Amino acid sequence: MSIEVRSLTHIYNDGTPFARVAINNIDLTIDDGEMVAIIGHTGSGKSTLVQHFNGLLRPTSGSVKIDGVEIGQKGVDLRTIRRKVGLVFQYPEHQLFEETVWEDVAFGPRNMGISDEEVRGRVERALRAVDADPSLAQRSPFELSGGEKRRVAIAGVLAMEPSVLVLDEPTAGLDPRGRQDLLGQIQRLQAERHLTVVFVSHNMTEVAQLADRLVVMHRGEIVMEGPPKQIFAEGEHLQTIGLGVPDMTALMQRLRAKGWDLPASALSVEEAEQAIMAILTEEARVGAGADV
């Protein structure tokens, strides 16, 4: 399922002395099945943008189309749109409220008016999709660890069986193991369900690991867009707008500054290791030839 944003502007408190332009004249297309990361400094408009994707916010001007349907038009059923576009907020565990995990995940499907049997199937599939232990189903969601709560909250969105999954800072507050587990689940879900995934993140290593394409926002506008390698090769530009680069890209850029003939960007430890070893191997070969 695709998302098309055209000339989108959102002004908070429009028409008052407190008016503030959050996003300005945004054009963006996200293709079916794509994994897109939206990055930017705090206050750049990332969260405001993604809340337009399922109609939580209405444009001040411009349009948003989901699979060709302009969701701001009169007569469009936003409940249907929100079933197709699942939005997981930052710290989604704050959205948990039922007595048991099962009831929490079942809440959305029940409101769709489907049969009890279909609700049961959706809950079971959603919990399996996030690798939640079956024993969690009858526990209170408030007794779970931070990582378990995050999985349950995501399962509640997946139980609606959306075609688009939008995640706002999905790993915020998790420990390193929890972050890696969740990132792996997102990758697997996207592949298995052919989801279109849009996620907001401050973590450059995460976006390098997950995203097909990066959208860089600054002061409410898109200032860069492209594959991770292309964007992170512009490290100096990113720094001017308050962003960094993945750790391995930073290492490569420091070595380049010292005269090493390395690529401008590396997105993983394996990629950096391969590039550095190629240089060392070549130097050893040349040195051996000189000795002869």
β-strand number = 10
Query: Are there runs of 5+ residues with pLDDT below 50, and where?
Result: none
Distance between the termini: 62 Å
Largest sheet, in brief, is:
6 strands, mixed
Name of the top-level CATH class of the largest domain: Alpha Beta
> Overall 3D geometry?
globular
Provide the gyration radius in Å.
Answer: 22 Å
Number of helices: 11
Based on secondary structure, the structural category is alpha/beta
Strand content: 15-25%
Tell me the domain tally. 2
Helix content: 40-55%
Give average pLDDT, whole number: 89
Strand order of the largest sheet: 6-7-8-3-9-10
Record keyword descriptors for this entry:
single chain; 11 helices; four-stranded antiparallel beta sheet; globular; Rossmann fold; 292 residues; 2 domains; six-stranded mixed beta sheet; alpha/beta
Topology:
Layout: E1 3-12, E2 20-30, E3 35-40, H1 46-50, E4 61-66, E5 69-70, H2 78-84, E6 85-88, H3 101-111, H4 116-129, H5 146-158, E7 164-168, H6 176-193, E8 196-200, H7 204-210, E9 213-218, E10 221-226, H8 228-232, H9 235-240, H10 247-257, H11 269-291
Parallel strand pairs: 3-8, 3-9, 6-7, 7-8
Antiparallel strand pairs: 1-2, 1-4, 4-5, 9-10
Helix pairs in contact: 3-4, 3-5, 4-5
Task: Kindly describe this structure.
This protein is α/β, with parallel strands linked by helices and 292 residues long. It folds into two domains: 3-243, 3-Layer(aba) Sandwich (Rossmann fold), CATH 3.40.50; 246-292, no CATH class. It is 41% helix and 21% strand. The protein has eleven helices and ten strands. It has helices at 46-50, 78-84, 101-111, 116-129, 146-158, 176-193, 204-210, 228-232, 235-240, 247-257, 269-291, and strands at 3-12, 20-30, 35-40, 61-66, 69-70, 85-88, 164-168, 196-200, 213-218, 221-226. The strands form two sheets. It has a six-stranded mixed beta sheet. A four-stranded antiparallel beta sheet has the order 2-1-4-5. Helix 3 (101-111) crosses helix 4 and helix 4 crosses helix 5. The longest helix has 23 residues, at 269-291. The radius of gyration is 22 Å and the shape is globular. The termini are far apart.
